[in-house]
Amino acid sequence: MSTWGTLFRVTTYGESHCASVGAIIDGVPPGLQLSAQDIQTQLSRRRPGQSDLTTPRDEKDLVHIQSGIEHGVTLGTPIGLLVKNEDHRPKDYTETDLYPRPSHADWTYLEKYGVKASSGGGRSSARETIGRVAGGAIAEKYLTLAHGIEIVGFVSSVGKVHLPASVAPPSLVPTDGDEDNDDVPDALSPEFIHLLATVSRATVDKEPTRCPHPETAVRMTKRIRRAQEAHDSIGGTVTCVIRGVPSGLGEPVFDRLEAQLAHAMLSIPATKAFEIGSGFRGTEVPGSAHNDAFVRKADGRLGTRTNWSGGVQGGISNGEDIYFRVGFKSPATISQPQQTAQYDGTAGELAARGRHDPCVVPRAVPIVEAMAAIVIMDQLLIQNARRATAALLPPVTTLPPTMVLSGLKQALPKEGEEQK
Amino acid sequence: MSTWGTLFRVTTYGESHCASVGAIIDGVPPGLQLSAQDIQTQLSRRRPGQSDLTTPRDEKDLVHIQSGIEHGVTLGTPIGLLVKNEDHRPKDYTETDLYPRPSHADWTYLEKYGVKASSGGGRSSARETIGRVAGGAIAEKYLTLAHGIEIVGFVSSVGKVHLPASVAPPSLVPTDGDEDNDDVPDALSPEFIHLLATVSRATVDKEPTRCPHPETAVRMTKRIRRAQEAHDSIGGTVTCVIRGVPSGLGEPVFDRLEAQLAHAMLSIPATKAFEIGSGFRGTEVPGSAHNDAFVRKADGRLGTRTNWSGGVQGGISNGEDIYFRVGFKSPATISQPQQTAQYDGTAGELAARGRHDPCVVPRAVPIVEAMAAIVIMDQLLIQNARRATAALLPPVTTLPPTMVLSGLKQALPKEGEEQK
Amino acid sequence: MSTWGTLFRVTTYGESHCASVGAIIDGVPPGLQLSAQDIQTQLSRRRPGQSDLTTPRDEKDLVHIQSGIEHGVTLGTPIGLLVKNEDHRPKDYTETDLYPRPSHADWTYLEKYGVKASSGGGRSSARETIGRVAGGAIAEKYLTLAHGIEIVGFVSSVGKVHLPASVAPPSLVPTDGDEDNDDVPDALSPEFIHLLATVSRATVDKEPTRCPHPETAVRMTKRIRRAQEAHDSIGGTVTCVIRGVPSGLGEPVFDRLEAQLAHAMLSIPATKAFEIGSGFRGTEVPGSAHNDAFVRKADGRLGTRTNWSGGVQGGISNGEDIYFRVGFKSPATISQPQQTAQYDGTAGELAARGRHDPCVVPRAVPIVEAMAAIVIMDQLLIQNARRATAALLPPVTTLPPTMVLSGLKQALPKEGEEQK
Amino acid sequence: MSTWGTLFRVTTYGESHCASVGAIIDGVPPGLQLSAQDIQTQLSRRRPGQSDLTTPRDEKDLVHIQSGIEHGVTLGTPIGLLVKNEDHRPKDYTETDLYPRPSHADWTYLEKYGVKASSGGGRSSARETIGRVAGGAIAEKYLTLAHGIEIVGFVSSVGKVHLPASVAPPSLVPTDGDEDNDDVPDALSPEFIHLLATVSRATVDKEPTRCPHPETAVRMTKRIRRAQEAHDSIGGTVTCVIRGVPSGLGEPVFDRLEAQLAHAMLSIPATKAFEIGSGFRGTEVPGSAHNDAFVRKADGRLGTRTNWSGGVQGGISNGEDIYFRVGFKSPATISQPQQTAQYDGTAGELAARGRHDPCVVPRAVPIVEAMAAIVIMDQLLIQNARRATAALLPPVTTLPPTMVLSGLKQALPKEGEEQK
């Protein structure tokens, strides 16, 4: 349904042609300094019309905060917020409405609800994601202030244009296909690990395609223009890194951290694929090469030498960089006629419609970041509940030493350390 | 946490070395004929020791139903069930316990809980999945009886050994890598679509690797033996098809059907990747080729000519076969020494341990099927709530015709049709 | 938190001094004809300034629907709605802010959140209930159209002014206190049962006190005026009847119908007590007198001769009228000085504040009705899921006859019967 | 359904005539020392056969812990547990099965599920509460160790036999019925407040009736014997106090602490009424008398001079003793013939059945305590999440002083203080 989360909850509403789209964000930590601008920044990265590569509609998308904040500080109560729709009348009837758009949500929404919005796909509209981005911006403000967590998404492929092997996520590195050879050269290269550690939103936003590798960005732009000129569309992938996540997040068994992230990412319109860490490529690397050996890090804590796991082991964050990749299919709405059938089954040609976004992947970056922030925030609250609650128990003295070699209390940062 | 679902709820308990593992299945439809054998069949497909390719432990894994059934019929109340652990004493302390096993859950469980089970990874044990398989078997019994739904998983790759392009899921078809060429030859081939439509558990179980393509199965066996002999391990992928799912399942916006499936699959131990329909490969195919055009099917209902979407559009099932692929990383536990560090950071060599499963993918098949059944059952209950509730409203006469061309009431099957 | 419900979900936001208060209503059945007026009617019954017995503030409280409806018909997607606050600036600081108001939420909100809204009690404001009333109005529209369900609340006591024994709920009937005498004369009198069966909102609204017994209403008015003149406040009880609820609602074991109703009612500000059916008085009546014997009703179905149970048995509705009573404490905010302490513990006198509602019970009536509608709607959806799902199973033939004497399929109304 | 809680979750299964009843307790803090005996103590207080006032069946009710504990310490993973049923065959068919028992769950269970357990009421069986008592015992162990919280329930009335006014909860104090007199003499008497502060389980268990006032206990015993001899039954009330609860628990708006407690209590079989603090009686006391003025307590913290509120204000605990009262109706199962109707509507006489518990209230005491512990534990975890999360934020310097006079960080106890 339209609510995400256990303790940090995002509930959204709104279609394309109604008065507004918006959200209620419940469970926001009290005492957080938060302004509309904190939210607006990500909303503006999401909205159309940022370059001539995307749809030319110029939506203003100004956020209006309704509640939950006084004097610039959160009260701990729900934050209501909304963004007005410019065009909030139901669409007029046209002949194209006789056709469910192929691979769009028109037909399935009608099958599910029995009525459908004039815009066809109802809540499958990209405008629905505004509430998510707003919720994510709030989560992110906390995560940055309290933990220095950084979340950066970028475009890792458009069509067949991929990042070069040296800086690509493992699955985008070409394989030799030799089943007797265990190597996967270049996968998890040091350059890729370095990219994960350093990539910033500023770097990413330098290119309209949001690909941090300029040379590849040029080829992606070219690929998108080719789709645009062909009245066609093209998909791509977004890779996202989350830096600075404390160890211990994720709730086995059903709410392992990668399961929550996968759920969140595949709830974004047009997504069809998710992988974390080495992902599908990791299925080809033998355990002896794939295992991330432990080392003592500079700060004295355990870490891993490699990071095939993508920062999550046993469904729980291990403190290393979390990285994952999300696949967005090519947009269903294209500006060329399609041979298909009407709702009543009559075969025919669905006429070309107006101009559309030939590639949504660059605009999807802030949405991926937002859902990542929402997941981490919710999991952090749950783990904090466990830690803070267990910390009040008297020490256990009856356990064999190996059961408490490390542990909760030791892992609890000193008050002073955490307050920055 | 350890509960899945909204109306059909599976709650599991149990580690490797406790008295039993088990589950409570709540929300089971009343009046369903159900026996222990219905559950045992899938449990036996999951358990180790089925062939010499898997771990030689011979667990019996007999299910004991505690409640919720009388005279072989479900009461609609929770079904408690358990499977006893053969070895239910905490493990003895050994020197290897000084080391968190690389890429295993030992360290993250300790970071999360502050104490850890003697077995190390606690609930990350494969035995936890017994409760899921039992819950899935109950869901599946309903889905088969009421809707004729069939769920069949199979091994689509082991290491670099993939199904041949003609019968492989799109992402396993090699690409030409030519970014100026929009074609992806062989992806979504008619043979693959035919395989999805016809593959059965009987066929799958003919091979110990659970790959329905005998020639590939031979190569997979060879690949697993090579890992076994090298005291190493290897991963792989499971592809699963769900046939006969009614249209309308999935709850936008956050609980789109693919999001639920991704969550369920990535909650299984050792999973790192998920894709539905054309998945990652679909990001490379232009919209004009990727869109699934509508056609009137033999039964008079709308369907799609192709099925790049994998049976889900706009987050909602469209009645076509649902297929998806899950990536399992190579098992972390290997029978060779590893250079790593102890909990306290001391570098050292973790000695080789006993014999282990070099490849878990064949045994993962019934777990994937179980989670798929649980997701579909829960979503079906929710959509049935909407359908049955909306069906009691007086007909709406004020809507423009295109808003109700098809719809809920018309879509409701006649009583007789659905009862087989 | 701020979300109610499993399938019919009401999420609210808003304090006294923010831009607006509002709600998102998710899970609304699609195809329901719904207008702003359907919601406004109950909002207007809730708002202050309806008579000189209540606070003289004249809030307009006009609802603005944001989404989920087109052409006057629900889409099945979330309905966002809001009501603007007239005064949406944080309050200025005054010396009274040094004092937490006794028995108000000022101190506990500060203890919980660490910061507090300028209005003190934050979400404990009565304005928060606007979102509930709106959600309830939507639920009620469905319940009326699909099932002819009627929900009517009325004031059954103000201070010590009670309805006369002949028409009072059992607990308001004076007891003889004779512990050797099992009788409780007049409790559950035929007049009371008749009142439950016939009372309407029109009757209730004839009196500003919303007591349907004119003579008692006069005494209640007098009692409220006495509180008003003494710069004091007084509490009271609301009794509510729900007519026409189908049998089978309520989800054992934790979500028994009375448990859900109690939860919903005690979530309303200022409530401290709940009883259903014979309630506390029923604890004094022996089982032989208290048991509701079964009879065949005029429509051929089983019913009960008496209704001590209040329409719920075993936690499940039995088709009889559901009635319950809710106790509202005397309002904490009074217009006279109070001896108390400041936040820092300094003893002192909290000065009198402006005019306040001396008795909120009449205005609480639509809030009680709204929460009742929300509970019934959610439970109806869940039970419809079970019924519709179980109805698709093949008939069970192996059960002893007494296990299926009646039952789900037989209980399913014919299509035509239910569609009015 | 059969799961309670957000972070501390109790899921139960089991009917009267199945193999076992049990529960899975999820979200238990790791590192808690816990033995079967901790659970058994409360189970034994719940089971029948403790005195000749209760049913003579001698159930052993030994708990078997399945998981989640090693070396006597919780792992933080789910604790599975079960208690075997002595008689686990479905009952034989008898002629009385033609009749739904009046005011029992037989008919409503059949209406709801369409099939019914051989025992009739299915999960409405008192044996279902075993899982709750076990879950409550685990919660209580934590609450005692970490916070010194004490939960004590006692019988406050049986039929018309009440505690004397001086030690009775407000609603059990007789009223003068004079609507022009604002006084309610004796309500909230110092003796009652003293009783709340001092009553212990040891005192309560001295009397088979579990009434801590010996003289009243004698009259209660007499009343129960009279019901027993008349082959009849009688109800009563349980009052419960929770001492030592930290301020700040309860989640507005829908999950106010009293709403959660009411939900929990009315989920217990045979309950029909709930009030907290002054409850229904509080509706008759003017605000000026009912308001709990603040005072600085001996420990320097704010407290209240009186406690009409019952320890909860604005839906949030304020640190004072929480007390509430639960009404249990007279048991439906009686050993005398009843004039009623069969399932098919035929009027007739339901013959007397065997011996039954004439009054369940004494045995209900540990169940009330268990549900109270479960509610507090879950709310504590949620508030700890908020506190621990907010505590990591940088201090807010921009708020008006009255918004942060007290607050979260100040309220956080020093590490040392809380660890006892």
TrEMBL record, chains A, B, C, D:
Q: Which cofactor does it need?
A: FMNH2
Q: What is its EC number?
A: 4.2.3.5
Q: Do you know which NCBIfam families this protein is assigned to?
A: aroC, PRK05382.1
Q: Where are the transmembrane segments?
A: none
EC supergroup of this enzyme: lyase
Q: Which GO BP terms sit in this record?
A: amino acid biosynthetic process; aromatic amino acid family biosynthetic process; chorismate biosynthetic process
Please state what the protein is called: Chorismate synthase
Keyword vocabulary terms for this entry: Amino-acid biosynthesis, Aromatic amino acid biosynthesis, Lyase
The entry's free-text remark on the cofactor is: Reduced FMN (FMNH(2)).
| Classification via InterPro entries | Chorismate_synth, Chorismate_synth_AroC_sf, Chorismate_synthase_CS
Q: Which PROSITE patterns match?
A: CHORISMATE_SYNTHASE_1, CHORISMATE_SYNTHASE_2, CHORISMATE_SYNTHASE_3
